[in-house]
Amino acid sequence: MSLKRRDLLVLGGLSGLGLVAAGKTLSRSPEQVSGMPQTVSEPPKTAGKELMLRFVAVADSGAGDRNQFASANAMAGYHKKNPYSLVTLAGDNIYNSGEMERVGIAFEEPYAPLLKQEVRFRACLGNHDIRTENGDPQVRYANFNMNGRYYTYREKDVQFFVLDTNGNADWKDQMAWLNAELGRSTAPWKIVYGHHPIYSSGHYGTDAEMIRKFAPLFKQHQVQLYINGHEHHYERSTSIDGTTYLVTGIGGASLRPVGRSKTTEYSVSRFGFSAIEVYPDRLQIEGIGTDGLVFDRGIVARQAKVSV
Questions:
Q1: How far apart (Å, rounded) are the C-alpha atoms in residues 226 and 131?
Q2: Is residue 209 within a helix (H) or strand (E), and if so which, with residue range?
Q3: What's the pTM value of the predicted model, to 2 decimals?
């Protein structure tokens, strides 16, 4: 079937079950959400379509506690069965204040099995990270592979755009840079990540100012996925003007309750990580718990190029 619509998200999780009042977030505890049916969609049959890239996304990870180690162990277990070479680390990399003397317990020790396998972590700065020297020591730290406070890199047919979404960021220059870099990118897949949410049904909720800043750019340049943390839950959105929004702040810090809103495809409060597989015609997103089991799966189909 040819793709003639902008970014089609194949339903997975709980959407379409009549559980959402229009425009309102339903109040549920994490246990209630996670206890609901967790059916997931099977990926479409795509004979001859080969996996191009697999990577893992996690945020709010740097607590250095048993929850982080449990999430990290699950990431290592997933790597043994499904090898990957990239982790997008979406901020709050070192609790509580980004102090580099804690980089051992908050990063190097939990992820030692992955680092030994030469898995590369690519980080952005969270609000806790900038409490020490405005995050500059983390930008310089070799294992975070940050080419500045905001930067871009390409892995095969995917181009990643990494943002500093903190309140004291250089927003004027960063937004001009993002617009220019998105415009010149020839990658079929464009993925943006930063620490703070744009759409969310959690503690902080949907951010109207972030929508104003980013939604028009994402639509114009056909960004298919935005990844963030800050909210301590997992949430995958519906396709909003061609972009799916993935909250994955489940890497080790304490969890918070999450509800559902009209943009929610699936949400739950539990530790783990997200795994993304990239094919020529689709992205497959999986939420994976510390038990190593998939609790959510969604498909983002490649959108047809729109002439303007």
A1: 25
A2: helix 208-221
A3: 0.86
